[in-house]
Amino acid sequence: MSLGRYGVYYAPPRWSDFERFGTAWLGRDAETGEPVTQPDLPGLGRDVLRELTVEPRRYGFHGTLMAPFEPAEGIGEATVLERLDRLAATLAPLHMEPLAVRAIGSFLALVPAYQDGPAELAEAVLRAMHPLRAPVTEADRARRRANGLTPAQDRLLERWGYPYVLGEFRFHITLTGRVADPGLRERIAGLARCHAATVTGRPHPVRELCLFHQPDRETSFRLIHRARLGNTSETS
Q: Pfam families attached here (predicted)?
């Protein structure tokens, strides 16, 4: 029986201002699965924001370090947890550089000023956790290729099961789904910049590797475990 999918993500510290911002923006607490009241943005309305955040809400407020994967045959959840905890203990915490609201293609995200810290962390996670993943399926391979991949990305897909790793990795925290209309996208970006002003413009601590789980493709992800990096304190 399938265990579903696991993703290794950055998520803000529990009960931090950044977590409160993220859960409210997406309208869902990924740790409890409970809905959260979204902000009423001037001239937009909660119904519009709710529609714009349907897809990221399924994943929870996060930045991907290792994209969702299905464990290989014979690998149980206990093994995934043990490997992640063991890895986290060997890694030092870091501070993520200040974030800004930017468009990535047709969606909006929070992107750090520099990628070095998250990229190094993501590579360590990828190399440690990849041996636990099942081979990429033909369906997932076709779905990725349908979006258009460069030759380098296609090679990464074959080797690592995901095309946006290592040299193609770009850390971001997704804020919206696709917004096709450029004018609407820019208007939402302006509103998001104003609303996010209290959590952008300053670094954020990265003290945990967060394990998210999706039992099946129709179910939303839940944050099920926080693995502490090194010997870090509980303060945020």
A: DUF1045
Q: pLDDT tens digits, residue range 27-86?
A: 999 999 999 999 998 888 889 999 999 999 999 999 999 999 999 999 999 999 999 999
pLDDT of residue 89: 96
Q: What is the pTM of this model?
A: 0.93
Find out whether 168 and 155 touch, Cβ atoms under 8 Å. Answer: no
Q: Cα(127)–Cα(160) distance, rounded to whole angstroms? A: 9
- Judged by DSSP in three states, 184 sits in helix
Residue 122 φ then ψ, to 5°: -65, -40
Give the whole-angstrom CA distance, residue 208 versus residue 232: 9
Question: From CA 100, how far away is CA 11, in angstroms rounded?
Answer: 16
160 C-beta neighbours (distance < 10 Å), count: 19
As a residue count, the chain comes to 236
Q: How many CB atoms lie within 10 A of CB 131?
A: 9
Q: Output the CA–CA distances (angstroms, integers) from residue 166 to 41, 121, 146, in the order listed.
A: 37, 10, 21
Q: Which amino acid is at 211?
A: L
Name 122's Cβ contacts closer than 8 Å, sequence gap at least 6.
64, 65, 66, 165, 169, 171
- Domains of the chain (ranges; CATH) run 5-219 (3.90.1140.10)
Q: Is residue 102 a contact partner of residue 108, using CB atoms and an 8 Å limit?
A: yes
